[in-house]
Amino acid sequence: MLPVIGAFGVSRIAGPETPGAPKPPPAAAGSSGHGRQLFVQSCAHCHGDDARGSGEDGDGPDLFRLGIGNARISAVIRKGIPDEMPSFAKKHSAQDIADITAYLRTLR
């Protein structure tokens, strides 16, 4: 196995993939830094500042290791979930939603 050098030093050990092991979803085309700012402004009150589901205004779920694709994440942000989560389509642009999705993909 070989170390993989990332922007912050050794980030993981690379080696042969384990057959049948789940692969992480591809990164969203957006800015995770800006997405984090938007998340704190719009999502943290339910999902918590750390996205672990401990928000002060609600009981939004833990958003780490989401098992859905980027398109589904974006659709949920855009459309909301009836009786659970509001739509953010009027508050955030398509690029904002891509940025929030990119941020959520950093939560591993």
Please give the structural blueprint:
Layout: E1 2-6, E2 9-14, H1 32-42, H2 44-47, H3 70-79, H4 94-105
Antiparallel strand pairs: 1-2
Tell me what the structure shows.
- With 108 residues, the chain is an alpha+beta fold.
- Helices cover 34% and strands 10% of the residues.
- The chain contains 4 helices and 2 strands; from the N terminus they run ββαααα.
- A hairpin with a 2-residue loop joins β1 and β2.
- The chain is globular and about 30 Å long.
- The relative contact order is 0.21.
- Number of distinct beta strands: 2
Q: What is the name of the CATH superfamily?
A: Cytochrome c-like domain
Give the rounded overall mean pLDDT: 80
What is the total domain count? 1
Strand order of the largest sheet: 1-2
Radius of gyration from the alpha-carbon trace, in angstroms: 15 Å
Report the structural category. alpha+beta
Tally of helical segments = 4
Any descriptors?
108 residues, alpha+beta, Cytochrome Bc1 Complex, Chain D, domain 2, two-stranded antiparallel sheet, 4 helices
Brief overview:
Helix content is 34%, strand content 10%. The chain contains four helices and two strands; from the N terminus they run E-E-H-H-H-H.
